[in-house]
């Protein structure tokens, strides 16, 4: 399949190691989920290649960290500018390999670039401290220095932004980077790396290792002592595996893991605004985001009105291939994703849930599934306990504020939560009671480079974005001088 690009060189199927583009001994097909066509044949590298990439990052580290903060910031800012100048081409590549509607892909490129700009600015704000000494002949200070080589493993659902959220603070801090993008979506990563080279990122500072051996490549990132930090976005199950593997070298970890986000609508909410917020939180990227509203709770007083209006608006969502500007819901990423949506739906219906709209594979066939709303959800249904990761919105009824909080917190996960209310006191009470790293109040879209992104409980460790996001890429050194 050909993608129409203004700059065809951005469609780069090779991997990047030490500034050289590597085709590898074998290649793997990158499939467009909307059509089943081959977009490109990407380099399918192995563990030895990963080791070479780590060595390259390790060798490039001293010179990169020795640059001034301003020098690193200027390079990052040029990278940001190139990303935005090539926004349309990057979006077309993203949609072709992932299936996301092109309008959302354009938004993701801007979102990803915003992290590069943010951390370009933060590079010049990495401060130390002078500590008042307890003795007259002592001088005491704290320095913050780059941790070293950073390994990154990113998912397919945001193949541009997830890398940007990790590589930008790493480079701003003075670290070097080895990225392993998801095997389904390697082309967004390599396109970013092409632009990074043009921006002046030195050879070896950014390395992109594409390949299908997820376990082998991940193990090398976890156990190679030259890697001093691993940052991962993906499932909690895989996160636990990586934690065990990183324990050998006490490798520092940032983990952005699974979510099971509740979306609560109280009686005093603006119902129309809540419906719009629920659609934004649930159906963005076809429900394939870690902060998707996985469980919707509506209070009894507005329950019927809410589910009726939600079903009406969801039924009008336009399903189709991502390259069409009118498309709002694209295909799911693979057959496993479709099967999970169907399994959750069948389980809910078998236990008494009502399908209000959708409820089956879409007439387009392939990996398309109808945007679906199901009402009368009850405890024990699989979709309350597992991330669906698809266009299925389940709605349950609740009576009291305490009941809503209890049900929302009844999960091992704690990434994002949402609620709608016009009661100012309730806004504070519920925000503080929800056991989540992110809480959206009267909004279904809350992520931005300026704010910390991350979860609690089994949803992960650390934060990305914001002024806090660079901390995990730095080591603290205490220096004591006797005069």
From TrEMBL:
It is an enzyme of class 1 (oxidoreductase). Keywords: Oxidoreductase. This is Succinate-semialdehyde dehydrogenase. Belongs to the aldehyde dehydrogenase family. The keyword Oxidoreductase applies. GO terms for molecular function: succinate-semialdehyde dehydrogenase (NAD+) activity. The keyword Oxidoreductase applies. The active site is at 256. Its EC number is 1.2.1.-. It comes from the Bacteria. One of its GO terms (biological process) is gamma-aminobutyric acid catabolic process. It holds the Pfam family Aldedh. Gene3D superfamilies: Aldehyde Dehydrogenase, Chain A, domain 1, Aldehyde Dehydrogenase, Chain A, domain 2. InterPro entries: Ald_DH/histidinol_DH, Ald_DH_C, Ald_DH_CS_CYS, Ald_DH_CS_GLU, Ald_DH_N, Aldehyde_DH_dom, Aldehyde_DH_Superfamily, Succ_semiAld_DH. GO terms for cellular component: cytosol. Residues 21-479 form the Aldehyde dehydrogenase domain.
């Amino acid at each position: 399949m050909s993608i129409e690009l203004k700059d065809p060189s951005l469609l780069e199927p090779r991997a990047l190691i030490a500034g050289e583009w590597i085709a590898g001994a074998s290649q793997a097909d990158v499939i467009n989920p909307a059509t089943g066509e081959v977009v490109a044949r990407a380099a399918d590298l192995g563990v030895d290649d990963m080791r070479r990439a780590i060595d390259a990052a390790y060798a490039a580290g001293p010179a990169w960290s020795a640059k001034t903060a301003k020098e690193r910031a200027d390079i990052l800012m040029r990278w940001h500018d190139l990303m935005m100048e090539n926004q349309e081409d990057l979006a077309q590549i993203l949609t072709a390999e992932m299936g996301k509607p092109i309008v959302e892909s354009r938004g993701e490129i801007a979102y990803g670039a915003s992290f590069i700009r943010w951390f370009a600015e933060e590079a010049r704000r990495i401060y130390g401290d002078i500590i008042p000494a307890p003795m007259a002949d002592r001088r005491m200070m704290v320095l913050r220095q780059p941790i070293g080589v950073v390994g990154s493993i990113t998912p397919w659902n945001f193949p541009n932004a997830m890398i940007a959220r990790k590589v930008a603070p790493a480079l701003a801090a003075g670290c070097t980077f080895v990225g392993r993008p998801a095997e389904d979506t390697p082309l967004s990563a390599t396109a970013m790396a092409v632009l990074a080279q043009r921006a002046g990122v030195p050879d070896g500072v950014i390395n992109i290792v594409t390949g299908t051996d997820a376990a082998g490549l991940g193990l090398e990132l976890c156990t190679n002592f030259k890697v001093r930090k691993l940052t991962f976005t993906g499932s909690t199950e895989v996160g636990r595996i990586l934690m065990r593997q990183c324990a050998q070298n006490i490798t520092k970890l940032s983990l952005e893991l699974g979510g099971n986000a509740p979306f609560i609508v109280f009686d005093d909410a603006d119902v129309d605004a809540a419906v719009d917020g629920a659609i934004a939180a649930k159906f963005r990227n076809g429900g394939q985001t870690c902060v998707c509203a996985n469980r919707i709770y509506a209070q009894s007083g507005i329950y019927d009105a809410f589910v009726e209006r939600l079903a009406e608006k969801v039924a009008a969502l336009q399903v189709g291939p991502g390259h069409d500007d009118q498309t709002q819901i694209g295909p799911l990423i693979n057959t496993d994703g479709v099967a999970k949506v169907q399994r959750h739906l069948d389980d809910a219906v078998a236990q008494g849930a009502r399908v209000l709209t959708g409820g089956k594979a879409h007439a387009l066939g392939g990996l398309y599934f109808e945007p679906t709303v199901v009402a009368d959800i009850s405890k024990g249904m699989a979709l309350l306990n597992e991330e669906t990761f698809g266009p299925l919105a389940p709605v349950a009824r609740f009576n009291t504020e305490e009941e809503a909080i209890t049900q929302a917190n009844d999960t091992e996960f704690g990434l994002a939560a949402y609620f709608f209310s016009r009661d100012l006191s309730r806004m504070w009470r519920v925000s503080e009671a929800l056991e989540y790293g992110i809480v959206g109040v009267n909004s279904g879209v809350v992520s931005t480079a300026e704010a910390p992104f991350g979860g609690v409980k089994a949803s992960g460790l650390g934060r990305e974005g914001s002024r806090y996001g660079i901390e995990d890429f730095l080591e603290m050194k205490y220096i004591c001088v006797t005069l």
